[in-house]
Amino acid sequence: MTLEDYLAQDARLYPDKAAVRCGGEVCSYAQLWQRVQQRAAELPQGRIIPFRSSQTIQFLIDYLAIHLAGSVAAPLEKDIPAALFQEIESRLSSGQVPEGTADVLYTTGTTGKSKGVIISHRTIVADAENLIAGQGFSHDLTFVVHGPLNHIGSLSKIYPVILQGATLHILDGLRDADAFFAAFQREGNYATFFVPANIRFLLTFDAARFSSLADRLDFIESGGAPLSHADMQQLCTILPHTRLYNTYASTETGIIATYNYNDGRCLAGCLGHTMPHSRVMITSEGMIACQGDTLMSGYIGDPELTATVLRGDTVYMSDYGTIDAEGMLHIGGRESDVINVGGYKVSPVEVEDVALSIEGVRDCICIAADHPIMGKAVKLLVVMKDGACFDKRHIARYIAARLEPYKVPMLYEQVETVARTYNGKLDRKHYQQG
Asked: For the segment 242-265, what is each residue's pLDDT rounded down to a tens digit?
């Protein structure tokens, strides 16, 4: 069965149930299926169709209708420049994809060379079944999605919602905090997905209202970047009965592993056990490699790039990892992010994790800086909370008490903000020195 087969089944079994809410609009499963069929009849068959994403019910209809029409969906950034949209549209018009392809998802923003990741219908259902098994999506759940729907982090939540006949509530980002919290006011069970930057924002500026959701939030998933241990611990404190998941996933691999860190242990860097359709191994170089039904089919129009990542039935990632005695995956940072200091390798994520637990630190990023003797040195850029004092010696002593000496930054600088990508990840390339 495809995602659209499950939608048709939902329309038969739960015709009057709310399938999706957005703003003041509510669409039942019967209405959604009818609108998807009508839209599909207007679309060409056997094409790759690029379209701008939006946080609307119409986006959901278009996405599903393209599949139903027998075409391939290629959702792009809603603010993508017209010239780049046309360039991608031209490339896709001559692109070839395997039979059974559902989507081409782009993994970069609006600058640089975009990578179009080919996703099959089989992968979509496997991702859905992984999330249902790993996180307990249920029929009575309302999943609140506020991230961009052209990225796997938020788009993938549509899948288990439809498989289970649950309800999707679409928000346009977190800029309107009142709208976000209002989305949880109806009776029932709720869940949502955050990138770590969103969690830190809410914990910093709206912790009281966040904690007021404790009795409504069934679970929260985070992904896309490492979540600091300090934020993990704070979430466990304010949401004691909520399942809190760190997930290992990417556009190339699909949804692979997840860990509920609100288990009494709150293990930093742990991403849990693999889900039913996925397998993980660690290469001889210490890198994570993934197998299973959730993997991409390749990069469209770029077999050479595909071969650097996908070989046989395995996707080779650029993340260091280990598997513990319980069979749980632990991540050790990205290969490209590691800082080489005098022959020692420093994971900036480990330094940031400690720094974020310092009282008064709002945000930070650890980068490599030129050094006249060492060649490279670890530098920490710190954003302080309002009213907090920036004390380099205090920060250095705090980190030195918790990490090996070679991991303690030599350089410190207070900044107003740290650079992040369009989807909230720390933008380390912004600080790379030529």
From this structure: 999 999 999 999 999 999 999 999
